[in-house]
Design goal:
By secondary structure, this protein is of the alpha/beta class. The protein has 18 helices and eleven strands. The strands form three sheets. A seven-stranded mixed β-sheet has the order 6-5-4-7-8-11-9, with helices on both faces. Strands 1-2 form a two-stranded antiparallel sheet. Strand 7, helix 11 and strand 8 form a beta-alpha-beta unit. The longest helix is centred in the first third of the chain and has 16 residues. The relative contact order is 0.08.
Length: about 400
């Protein structure tokens, strides 16, 4: 009787894991379940009857598990896309493991994350590198992207480094592109992830319009762990390219993330807040501790997402003039606008009404800055082909 009980417990355990059982083991366990269910003849039947009187009808169904296994048959492995396997090259499936399904329904070999240790190569301080090494955080970042393009052809990762995000992205978006300035990273990714399209350039040199054309005209989805020292430049670059970008999911210093998402009236509200919120909708998704990076930075980080509309908003002014107003106002953010904008007001021969002139810049909403610019410069249009928020502006880019 104790032997019968042991066999029943074994069958119960196999019932929980039979979906991952190999075909040969599956058949063996099915035969074992069938023998237990049959009880081994008349004596076995008496033993089963006595056991059933103690355990009830639920155990009866468990003893019939062997027959159910035999009816189901061995599990089948999902098909692998042969073209994808061949595209990896004749040197084997380095960097690949089990098959995974893409959004289009194809099954492709699953990409494994390359080694992330400091022994691969050290971070360069001159490039502001802090490599993400925590796979749980990497997974949360990747899940925040959600790009609808076919096989991820509109996905662009900026600064992939050693590929902590890249491997997970490839499993969801096999036709993605990565942009990397560090030659060591380019070589490492080409070796470990040969199926990846890596462009060796600075993200500040990316032609987002051209990148959009490569994706078949689809709005791009940008993702990346940004170097702290050029976060604002990269963000302004993305904003200038807003018609070509649908969503940007980027890691940055927590303080900068709070400034991007700040509302009027707070100390963190400033130029980044106004500009980002005029072009898109920023959201701070979650904070990231220093311990998940190598080397660990001295400050906390955060992941933000910025959603951009399909058509860039038009406000009926030259946005270059808005930039002039914002810089003048926030350079003296504790002063009233009639003081911080004194030179511009004199140049344009304009006097601000008290309800605006007595306010500080941090209290104005983004659209109020648009109207303030209209008051100073009048209606206008932004010149074609101008990067408004990056680099220096000359007189030719402003309305007279």
């Amino acid at each position: 009787d104790w032997l019968l009980l042991a066999c029943v417990l074994l069958v119960i355990g196999e019932a929980r894991t039979h979906t991952s059982t190999t075909p040969s083991a599956h058949s063996a366990h099915a035969r074992l379940g069938a023998r237990v269910a049959s009880g081994g003849g008349e004596r076995g039947g008496m033993r089963e009857a006595a056991f059933m009187s103690c355990c009830g009808s639920n155990m009866r169904r468990l003893l019939r598990y062997g027959s159910a296994l035999a009816a189901i048959g061995p599990p089948r492995a999902p098909p692998v896309n042969r073209q994808t396997v061949e595209a990896v090259g004749g040197g084997g499936l380095q960097g690949l493991s089990m098959a995974t399904s893409t959004p289009s329904g194809d099954f492709r070999p699953r990409v494994k994350t390359p080694g992330q240790g400091a022994d691969v190569y050290k971070a360069k301080q001159s490039l502001g590198q802090n490599f993400l090494v925590d796979q749980n955080v990497a997974r949360r970042i990747v899940e925040s992207l959600d790009c609808p393009s076919e096989n991820g052809k509109a996905v662009v990762e900026v600064g992939p480094g050693k590929g902590a995000l890249t491997a997970m992205l490839l499993n969801k978006y096999p036709d993605m592109t990565a942009v990397e300035i560090d030659e060591r990273s380019v070589e490492y990714l080409n070796e470990k992830l040969p199926m990846l399209n890596v462009e060796h350039k600075s993200v500040l040199d990316v032609d987002w319009g051209e990148q959009c054309d490569k994706a078949g005209g689809s709005q791009l989805s940008v993702i990346g762990n940004l170097p702290y020292y050029i976060t604002s430049q990269i963000l302004f670059s993305v904003i200038d390219a807003a018609p070509h970008i649908r969503r940007a999911v980027i890691t940055m210093q927590l303080e900068v993330a709070q400034r991007v998402c700040a509302t009027p009236g707070g100390r963190t509200y400033g130029i980044l807040s106004v500009v980002t919120q005029l072009y898109g909708k920023p959201t701070l998704l979650f904070k990231i501790p220093p311990t998940v990076f190598q080397p660990a930075p001295d400050v906390d980080s955060a992941l933000i997402a910025v959603e951009f509309p399909e058509v860039k908003p038009e406000y009926g002014i030259n946005m270059c003039n808005l930039r002039t107003v914002l810089r003048a106002a926030f350079q003296q953010r504790r002063k009233m606008l009639r003081q911080s904008l004194k030179l511009l007001l004199k140049e344009k021969g304009v006097t601000l009404p008290d309800e605006i002139g007595t306010r500080r810049p941090e209290t104005l909403a983004p659209l109020e800055f648009v109207e303030l610019t209209r008051t100073l410069f009048g209606d206008g249009e932004t010149p074609e082909g101008i990067n408004v928020w990056r680099g220096a502006l000359g007189d030719k880019e402003r309305d007279s």
